[in-house]
Design a protein that fits this description.
The chain has 51 residues and is mainly α. The protein has one helix spanning 11-29. The longest helix is centred in the middle third of the chain and has 19 residues, at 11-29. The termini are far apart.
């Protein structure tokens, strides 16, 4: 049994590739704290106030 992955990569190369893809995805989605571009469409009544 070979220690290489299906793409001919060693486990270390595969891990490095996965880390690079994760890093790229994180960069593309940063900052995650931005509010969503939509609202629920529900206005609060004066009685509700800010909870």
């Amino acid at each position: 049994m070979s220690s290489e992955g299906s793409a001919g990569q060693t486990p270390d190369e595969h891990d490095r590739h996965v880390e690079e893809e994760l890093d790229e995805a994180l960069e593309e989605t940063f900052p995650a704290s931005d509010p969503p571009s939509f609202t629920s469409g529900r206005e609060r009544s004066p009685e509700e106030g800010s909870k």
